[in-house]
Design brief:
Blueprint lengths: L42 E4 L1 H12 L4 H8 L3 H21 L2 E4 L11 H7 L6
Parallel strand pairs: 1-2
């Protein structure tokens, strides 16, 4: 069994073609997000290329053709990444789940929410 993050190296489902390499602007900018109320145990994992597709199309306003060119993938691949990212974000917002970016580069000193969970120690029970 592989211990790599989803989307790293091989296709997520282990079948079909491997994911094409994307040209991502600033991979160090990724982090985790969660609801302020409670401690949800459900996590939605979003791949960096999905976040970059969201950023290019929804935040900067590029057309899908332009965003696909910037990422170095086909328009269909960009559309698939964008569609999956939007569905994952909607699921997290509606159901109060934590959003974790796969391969998040934050260090412990930067206050990663997963580090806070680990520093709390094992839960009694």
């Amino acid at each position: 069994m592989s211990t790599s993050e989803p989307g790293e190296g091989r296709c997520r489902r282990g079948r079909g073609r491997p994911r094409a390499r994307r040209m991502i602007g600033d991979p160090g900018a990724f982090r985790c997000f969660g609801p302020l109320c409670g401690r949800p145990d459900e996590v939605v994992v979003i791949l960096p290329e999905e976040v970059e597709a969201l950023r290019l199309v929804d935040l900067t306003g590029l057309e899908q053709e332009e965003a696909a060119l910037a990422l170095g993938v086909s328009r269909k691949t960009l559309w698939r990444d964008l569609h999956e990212a939007r569905a994952k974000v909607a699921d997290a917002l509606v159901h109060g789940k934590t959003i974790r970016i796969a391969g998040c580069g934050r260090d412990r000193e930067e206050g990663c929410p997963e580090d806070e969970d680990a520093s709390a120690g094992p839960s009694p029970g």
